[in-house]
Amino acid sequence: MAREVPLKKVERETALLEKISLAIPGFRGYKLKEMRREADKLIRDHLYRRLVEAKSSMKEIFQRLVINKLMDVLEDTDRLIAKFDRVAELINHAPYGYSGFFSAVKIEEDDLENMIDFDLKLVGSVKGIEAKVKQLRSEVMSGKFENVRTHVDDIRGSIEDLENTFNERKEVIMGVQF
Hints:
elongated; mainly alpha; 76% helix
């Protein structure tokens, strides 16, 4: 079964009274922008939760590495956990397309669409990171430590790529007017 696009989910779940108000001239555009902003926030909340869960798995991995006295990878693993935290918080606290009525910067409807499309692409990156963490966790929990450094380096590269890609998001929403 295909996953529902967040904007479609928000539209579908709009209350009957809100649907009626969409027919009011001028209100429709405003409401559609709000729905797109809400969809963007849902996507980012999803990314944040998944990164926090992956960070928790990394903490379990770190504990197992400590127990097994694998000192040569502890510092890198600890830094990776900190990077997970930083990137997750970056995503959690990023602006989500809100532009007040009197703001100097107005985010247009097309810009919000682009931002949502961009955020959806980030979901694939987070899934890839989750799969790598899951693989490392599986190996470490079963006592296989020979590839830990390779996995940690690979995950760090993926997190850095996600961070760089997410930072480009600002440019996506900067398709704005002053």
